[in-house]
Amino acid sequence: MIRYEMTECRRHHCGLMARRMRAADRAAMVAAGYDPHREIVHRFQESAYRRAWLIDGELAAIGGVSGTLAASDGYIWMVVAQMATRHALALARMTRGVLAEVSVTFRAVESVMMAGDGRAVEFARFLGFCVVDGGPAWGVRMRYQGRA
């Protein structure tokens, strides 16, 4: 039986996730001029709300909400390991739980997806996000609308 759990994300998870992240995500970040490890650490440090998703005790994804819990707008970020793509439904269930939790605190929840990453945009739509605008050349800005 596969065991899924969510725990508080710790600083050491950032380096581990930078090595485990989806190859397409890594390539897109490098092509855009970002260092994946540095960018993940930056998001981690600016977030008051951080979670780690584990599959059988193995780190599968990390994410959080940038900003303080007193802010009215929250900006979601998430990094998914390659192995987690085989558990998309379980990952979606855990992520929906997080979205329901942060939606109580934040008036608006948004995220920016890499424009060339169709799988990430499709996953976000499945979770209840909708496209707000094309954003910068490298991203698609999305806002959480909740599930109907």
What does the secondary structure layout of this molecule look like, with pairings?
Blueprint: E1 4-8, H1 12-20, H2 23-31, H3 36-45, E2 47-55, E3 58-66, E4 73-80, H4 88-105, E5 108-114, H5 118-127, E6 129-133, E7 139-144
Parallel strand pairs: 4-5
Antiparallel strand pairs: 1-2, 2-3, 3-4, 5-7, 6-7
Task: Give the helix/strand class.
Answer: alpha+beta
Query: How big a fraction of the residues is strand?
Result: 25-35%
Uncertain regions spanning at least 5 consecutive residues? none
Distance between the termini: 31 Å
Largest sheet: 7 strands, mixed
Structure in a nutshell:
The protein is an alpha+beta fold. It has helices spanning 12-20, 23-31, 36-45, 88-105, 118-127, and strands spanning 4-8, 47-55, 58-66, 73-80, 108-114, 129-133, 139-144.
Description of the structure:
There is one protein chain. By secondary structure, the protein is of the alpha+beta class. Helices cover 38% and strands 33% of the residues. It contains five helices and seven strands; from the N terminus they run βαααβββαβαββ. A hairpin with a 2-residue loop joins strand 2 (47-55) and strand 3. It is globular. The model has no long low-confidence stretch (mean pLDDT 87).
